[in-house]
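During data preparation, a discrete fold description was generated, and the record follows.
___
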Amino acid sequence: MKKNTSIAIGIIASALTACGSPEGLTDEQYAVYKQLGAPKILFSCVRLGETTPSVGYRYGNNPFASFNSILDAAKADCEGGNIKIIDKLQ
């Protein structure tokens, strides 16, 4: 099962690269995200009471930032909704 998940994630990542920016993110925002160093997370979020996902990103802007702190910040941005990681670099 994990192998299938890895394959699916690879296909999604390839599609994102081939198709430009993810829906909900401008090409300029996506270009900025791609240039950021690790750790970083690109995520989609469906907040409680909403049906349309929003897309955002979080990154470590200091040398001591951890991946977990960035993930916690992304979850906080989602305000208790459902978060899905689209891309990450640890």
